Amino acid sequence: LQDLTGDGGVRKKQLRLGTGQPVPPSASVAVKYSGYLGNWNKLFCSDGNCKYPRLMKLGKDITVWGLEIGLLSMTKGEAALFILSPEYAYGQRGCPPSIPPNTTVLFKVEVLDFIDSEECDAFFELTYEQQDRLPLEKVLKVAATEREFGNYFFYKQRFKIAKDRYKRALSILGRRSSSKAEQSQINASKLLLFLNLSLTYLKLECADRALKYGELALEMDQGNAKALFRCGQACLYMREYGKSRDFLARAQCIQPFNRDINNELKKLARYYKEYMEMEKEMCSQMFDPLNS
User: Fold this and answer.
1) Distances (CA, A) of 180 to 139, 172, 186
2) What's the angle, vertex CA 103, arms to CA 97 and CA 107, rounded to 5?
3) Helix/strand/coil percent split, the chain, to 5
4) Cα 18 to chain center, whole Å?
5) Of 42, 71, 89, 170, whose Cβ has the fewest other Cβ atoms within 10 Å?
6) What is the pLDDT of residues 25-80, one digit of tens each?
């Protein structure tokens, strides 16, 4: 066993090698874990059955000192076993009724993912005036990290949180630049966020908002096939079939072999046919009494 503290307080046994960078002290970490009493005879905590483990901020959300020390020795994808003495776990008092006083505990931990948020944390502690004076490079990095958080929550299907993180990233990109090169960098970052928000609002079944952000993306890049596709999807959801076809046809011209675009056009044709048949049936029912 590896002694992480030099006094035997936190000992580690690696169960599986990781593949990424070490977990930094400022990271938000997604882990699977199980906690046992010292002789493995009692499980006292676990999130092994949690479908979408939450991101936990080091130094804030993790209350067991020895567990945080252990996490800082790990890399993404690594699995390990940690043995924590009472001084690095729950102390002399324990945590009644689950954990008796002066108990050694065991944690089995797997690092699923992490996002380093050091620059974000520092940025949002500044005043608006201080933020505005920062170099653009730092602002873009903070926006990119916020977008990364949004992507994490999106892929965990937590769409409302993803939407909020994307909007938070947008909120710091409102600064104007006298340099065309810098403004181009800002616009490129905004474009990605507009596309993310358009898709997220589709997932939230808010088609009007999805259309709004798709159109904002098109204002920056008229030939963006992804933006045209999102707008087409939003219009189809709102049963605006003519507008949907216009957007999707433009997207198809740019990417004629894109399967998603072509499938959406087929769906549009099917929905429009069903709509016309329903309209025809309604008209028939309205005029049948007159004919009789």
Assistant:
1) 17, 18, 10
2) 95
3) 50, 15, 30
4) 22
5) 42
6) 999 999 999 999 977 778 998 886 777 788 899 988 888 999 999 999 999 999 99
CATH superfamily, domain at 118-282:
Tetratricopeptide repeat domain (1.25.40.10)
Question: Any idea where the domains of the chain sit in the sequence?
Answer: 2-116, 118-282
State which amino acid sits at residue 138: K
> Does residue 91 come out as left (phi exceeding 0), alpha (psi in the -120 to 50 range) or beta?
left
- At the second CATH level, the architecture of 2-116 is Roll (3.10)
Residues 292 and 289: their CA atoms lie apart, in Å, by 5
User: Is the confidence at residue 289, as pLDDT, over 70?
Assistant: no
Q: Are 72 and 78 in contact (CB under 8 A)?
A: no
In three-state form (DSSP H/G/I as H, E/B as E, the rest C), the secondary structure along 137-203 is HHHHHHHHHHHHHHHHHHHCCCHHHHHHHHHHHHHCCCCCCCCHHHHHHHHHHHHHHHHHHHHHHHH
Per-residue pLDDT of 124-180, as tens digits, reads: 999 988 998 899 999 999 999 999 999 999 999 999 999 999 999 999 998 777 688
Q: What is the CA radius of gyration of the chain?
A: 27
DSSP three-state, residue 111? strand
Give CA–CA dist 277/286, Å, rounded.
14
Structure tokens at 114: 């992490």
Q: Give the integer Cα–Cα distance in Å for 49 and 51.
A: 6
Provide the sign of the torsion angle of the four alpha carbons 167, 169, 171, 173, taken in this order: negative
